[in-house]
Each structure stands twice: as structure tokens, then as C-alpha cells.
Amino acid sequence: MAIGCFDEDKLKEIVIAKWRQGGPDRPVKVVPRGQPQRNDSAGYISQEKFVRGRTPEQMERVLGFDARPGQQYLSQGADIYHFTRVPGPHEFALKGYTQLPGGEPWAGDPEWPPGLGAPQWQLTTSVPCTLVKSVPRGARY
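Above: the chain's sequence. Below: its structure in C-alpha cell form.
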């Protein structure tokens, strides 16, 4: 399928090849700290390099999570998950960057504000994952 002048299948091949390199390019899921531990996950994901070395407060701004006082999405900190296998092309959708929440111009929803431009994808099916680290608010991942 083509997206504008881009071939979606080719773009997904490029993304998967990058994810397979691991390290800073591996896909990660960031969720509020203290939720029940997951064995798999769907929804929006980004890459390790956009959360590594950051506090949950910084992750909120980078990833486009609510950071308003009293409404912080990561108010208790962040749980970071790695996937136990690289998602396949049929398991994710291309969504662009966090400054365009969900790949769309910002509609004014303060719960999901524009982020600072980290790439994002949406897992459309649950993919096996494992908790790598639980990061309290104020601490660095």
C-alpha cells in the first residue's frame, strides 16, 4: 500500500531492519509505573533511544503524554518494556512522530499533547514483551 509517494511495505521493512539492530533502535513500550505487569502489549510504541537516560518527567514531554500538574501520565514513574521478538509488518501501523499525536495534527486534547518528535508506531496486535525497568518519578532510566 502506498502512503503519499511512499510505499508502506518498504517503509515497514526499513523500520523492522532498524528494530532488529537492537540497542538504541529497539522498540519500547512506556506505561505508568505500578500497573499490573504485562506479558504482551499493543498500542503506541517508540524506540529505546528516546527514553534512555531520561526521567519519567522528560519522557512525558518527548513522547507526548499529559504532563500538566496533577494530571501527569507518569505521575508514579514509568515502566519500560522491551519486546521479546520484533513485531512483524502485519502487527503495526506507521504513525509518524510524537509531535503529531497518533499521526494526526493535534486536536487540542491536553491528555495527549504533541511530543518532541520521537518516532511512534501503533501495535495493532499484542506482541510478547518483558518489563526491563521500573523508573520512579525523578529517577533516570
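The chain has a mean pLDDT of 93.
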